[in-house]
Design goal:
four-stranded antiparallel sheet; elongated
Length: 411
């Protein structure tokens, strides 16, 4: 009988080994799996289909905004409306309250908070004064000290630029603007002199200090029967004003933008100027030139990277982000469960959207503004995987081409 032992040993020695698996056996196994009309072709098709479907699901998931979770960064037993430094203004069943460094007070008419050089200013709806609080409140009769702003004047909001304070004040059923220097003492005539005179009815909501003064946003209300409009409820149009003050007379107002029917609710500094966000449109303001960005919102905030986030009302499914002049629309993992009343971003880039849910109960969500561009997000992992797979495929193709050239094969 012929002894096959020596022949098997010689054949085995001619086979290259990868780890513990002979290369010849490995390649023949792959050939059988990929062979046409074999019993393995359905297995190959199934694996391919699973990869395609799984990839599609992951890509769809990656389109959703990362870093979203329930709960906010400010915790109070009510609906948050404003904050400044350590002070938080929130609404309960009893009315508006303000919490500051563990001191909580009921301020039913409160409308604003503003911090300047360690001093917290508050609009408490009191005629003739603005409240303020600092670390040492010696000489004050209560929790809040009073800063005089003139008789028959009620401040709704304040913005400090240097030592000049611009105030949105109520004048009957309309708003106006007044300014004073918080380091000076004035007579009643001075207070009256430093109130702006204007025509028409304005409803002002937001302010930001600039190099020349302030930009103020809100709406202008048309007069009754204006262009056959409803005389009971005339329309209001988006409005942006430029305000300057020389320190000696009333502040001067210049209309920068009069838009469509709606209201400006936020103004933010950008790389080349300012961005004003509104319920009808968002505009870019650069060197006095106004450009429409064609996106509306009901609340907005600037993050730690100076990107501006635009949110819709409760139930909205997307959020728009203005970054370097470009607008990206991100899909929320779930419809917005909060009707926004106040949006805040901390120094770490964590955005808190505060408001009420569908049952008017306090609610909030948080968004990590840095997560969407992070490699640890699902989108980042997929991008990294795509890069690595592309590098591997291109390397294999290059290796095959080089091997073919070395062997003199035609390809």
């Amino acid at each position: 009988l012929y002894d096959h032992t020596d022949a098997k040993i010689r054949a085995f020695k001619r086979v290259k080994v990868i780890g513990k698996v002979p290369l010849g056996l490995l390649m023949s196994g792959w050939r059988r799996l990929l062979e046409e009309e074999s019993e393995h072709q359905w297995l190959s098709f199934a694996v391919f289909a699973i990869l395609v479907i799984g990839g599609a699901v992951l890509i769809d998931w990656s389109n959703e905004l990362s870093g979203v979770h329930q709960g906010g960064q400010i915790n109070e037993d009510g609906v948050i409306y404003d904050s400044a430094g350590d002070a938080v203004m929130y609404q309960t069943d009893d009315g508006m309250r303000i919490s500051h460094n563990g001191v909580d007070s009921l301020e039913r008419e409160a409308t604003c908070l503003e911090e300047f050089k360690g001093i917290t200013f508050a609009c408490l709806g009191e005629e003739g004064s603005i409240a303020f609080m600092q670390e040492d409140n010696l000489g004050c009769e209560s929790v809040w000290c009073n800063f005089t702003i003139g008789q028959e004047t009620v401040a709704k909001d304040v913005s400090v630029n240097g030592y000049d304070m611009l105030m949105i004040i109520q004048v009957g059923t309309t708003d106006s603007l007044a300014v004073l220097n918080i380091d000076e003492t004035y007579s009643q005539d001075d207070y009256n002199k430093f109130t702006a005179q204007h025509e028409g009815k304005m409803h002002l909501e937001t302010m930001i200090a600039t190099d020349d003064g302030w930009l103020v946003g809100g709406s202008w209300q048309a007069p009754a029967n204006w262009l056959a409009s409803n005389p009971v409820s005339p329309p209001m149009f988006e409005l942006v004003l430029s305000v300057e003050w020389d320190g000696f007379s009333a502040p001067s107002l210049e209309i920068i933008h009069m838009g469509d029917e709606g209201q400006i609710h936020g103004i933010f500094e950008s790389d080349d100027g300012y961005v004003a966000t509104g319920t009808a449109d968002t505009i870019s303001i650069e060197d006095g030139e106004v450009t429409s960005l064609g996106v509306s919102s009901y609340a907005s905030v600037a993050d730690s990277n100076n990107d501006i986030w635009l949110f819709g009302q409760i139930g909205s499914t997307t959020v728009a982000i203005i970054s370097d002049g470009e607008i990206d629309v991100e899909k929320l993992p779930e419809p917005l469960s909060v009707d926004p009343t106040y949006i805040y971003c901390d120094d770490d880039g964590m955005i808190s959207v505060h408001g009420s849910d569908g049952s008017d109960n306090p609610a909030a969500i948080s968004i990590d503004s840095n997560a969407r561009n992070s490699f640890t997000s699902l989108r980042g992992i997929l991008d990294l995987g795509f890069i690595l797979i592309s590098i591997i495929v291109m390397s294999i193709m290059g290796w095959n081409i080089a091997d073919a050239i070395r062997k003199g094969e035609v390809f």
